[in-house]
Amino acid sequence: MKRSSYDLVVIGAGAAGLLAAGRAAMLGASVLLLEKMEKPARKLRISGKGRANITNMKALEDHLKEIHPEPRFLRQAFGAFFNRDLIALLEEMGVETKTERGERVFPVSDKAWDVAEALVAWAKRQGVEIVHQSRVEKLILDENGFAGLMVASTAGPRRIEAKCGIVATGGRSYPGTGSSGDGFLFAEQTGHRVDPLRPSLVAIETNPSFPRAKGLSLKNVQLSLWIAEKKQGSEFGEAEFTEKGLDGPIVLRLSRRIVDAVAAGQRVTVSLDLKPALDPQKLEARLLREMEARKGGSCQDLLRSLLPPQLVEVFTLALHVKPTGPLSQITAPLRKKLLHLLKDWRFEVVGHGSWERAIVTAGGVSLKDIDPKTMASRRVRGLYFAGEVLDLDANTGGFNLQIAFSTGWLAGESAARKASGEA
Ligand SMILES: Cc1cc2nc3c(=O)[nH]c(=O)nc-3n(C[C@H](O)[C@H](O)[C@H](O)COP(=O)(O)OP(=O)(O)OC[C@H]3O[C@@H](n4cnc5c(N)ncnc54)[C@H](O)[C@@H]3O)c2cc1C
Q1: Out of 16, 114, 178, 356, which could bridge 168 as a Cys pair, Cβ 3.0 to 4.6 Å?
Q2: Given the CA of residue 55, which atom of ligand 1 is nearest to it?
Q3: Whose CA is nearest to atom 5 of ligand 1?
């Protein structure tokens, strides 16, 4: 650290922290950005399977529908900096973007790494001093509010003074990227409420599970969620079998409600419709046609015409038929059972993935304690929060990163104005 006093100190060099620091420096603030890992933006670098789905081009109202629990909180942040602003900023940095299915935006290079490197270089160009391997341990407050912090660095503990501070420490999931939940402690220690933390966008563990089908991805299927025997929603798209259950985009989209229901001790089941394009009558007609065409063949011949190879054995076991046995084994009642399995294959949810594998954290610093116009704390003057540390989370599709970028930008702007005495 070049100095011991700054206008602004930002904790955490992820998507939110980089934007906050860069924007504040752009407005003339002296900014120190502290990152505990040896490299900034580790989570951004692995986002979108290494491709970084950085935002989504859906219109504002549709964008907000993807966000929980209080989407309206983001109106001002999105007003200050939204998807087109992000794309324009990246283009200025030399990162071209492209829009794919579902309005999801990625860098043309398909490399999250390029986005991270460009943001780091941009922040430095604005004058931000970035210091790695510097873990903030404690915030320091005085009678005026935020006064600075204590940081543990390779050279030992150090006190840094600053007029303003921004906590951009991320959530609790994927702790290997550095976001292990420190920001929630800082928030609590300085009198903020933290809404209960839960892993979200996470795979589910089911009974039965089919470890031998692990890796099998099913496209164009429908997954319905049942909580305490009531249907709670359904999603159409892609699901994947895992060692212990199910994963994939449609599972992730339902996972927020699943995690809450499991935590509340409710009975949760999901039902997989493998043939959503066919109603039961049409599917039965198709089944009869396939059986007619395979007269004299085996059960597995029929099942292969209906299912991916990895599920043929699963279905022969469920139907209690011999795979190589004659098709005549499939009597009318078994045909009904097969139809049922194809349209309404039930799995009891017995658990979900841990913090290690959850894509985002639901819960966080209570929005009641934050001013949506500035991202400033309502409890400590000069302190701001941005990114996943806030009680905001969204579906997959680029919405979570946009939350981090937008709240970071607004927090940086507000803190710079405050530090300069403007606000
Ligand atoms: C595998 C995976 C894939 C994802 N893919 C996508 C995607 O494609 N699109 C999308 O929109 N979202 C995606 N997300 C979610 C998205 O990456 C996050 O929501 C977003 O990165 C959060 O940004 P942030 O800046 O708030 O926090 P983070 O990116 O987690 O940054 C927080 C930073 O703070 C640092 N830090 C923490 N504590 C301290 C401390 N005490 N002192 C100093 N530094 C500290 C951490 O080391 C970290 O660098 C994905 C997440 C995961 C895990």
Answers
A1: 16
A2: 11
A3: 47
Tokens 């509340």 belong to residue: 264
Spacing of C-alpha 205 from chain mean position: 18
Helix intervals (H) in 35-167: 42-46, 60-65, 75-80, 83-92, 112-125
Q: Any idea of the CA torsion for 402, 403, 409, 411, to the nearest 10 degrees?
A: 180
Mutate to test the pocket of ligand 1, among 113, 179, 407 (most ligand atoms within 8 A of CB): 179
Q: Which single residue is written with the structure tokens 């159409």?
A: 236
Residue 17 CB–ligand 1 contact under 6 Å: yes
Q: How many CA atoms lie within 13 A of 11 on its CB side?
A: 33
The model's pLDDT over 97-111, given as tens digits with 9 standing for 90+, comes to 999 999 999 999 999
Q: Convert the pLDDT of each residue in 368-383 to its tens digit.
A: 999 999 999 999 999 9
CB of 134 closer than 8 Å to CB of 36: yes
Which residue puts its alpha carbon closest to atom 33 of ligand 1?
12
Beta bridge partners of 144: none
Strands 5-11 and 67-68: unpaired
How large is the average pLDDT for residues 216-236?
A: 97
User: Ligand 1, atom 52: nearest CA belongs to which residue?
Assistant: 359
- Nearest residue (by CA) to ligand 1, atom 41, is 136
Task: Enumerate domains of the chain plus CATH numbers.
Answer: 5-198+361-419 (3.50.50.60), 203-353 (no CATH)
What is the structure's pLDDT at 154? Answer: 75
> How far is it, in rounded angstroms, from Cα 138 to Cα 125?
28
The amino acid present at 379, given as its one-letter code, is R
81: tokens are: 């900096």
pLDDT at 156: 83
pLDDT band for position 2 (50/70/90)? confident
- Assign 17 a pLDDT band (cuts: 50, 70, 90): very high
pLDDT band at 326 (very low <50, low <70, confident <90, very high): very high
Terminal-to-terminal C-alpha distance of the chain: 27
Ligand 1 pocket test, candidate residues 35, 38, 43, 390, most atoms within 8 A of CB: 43
Q: How far is CA 389 from the centre of its chain?
A: 13
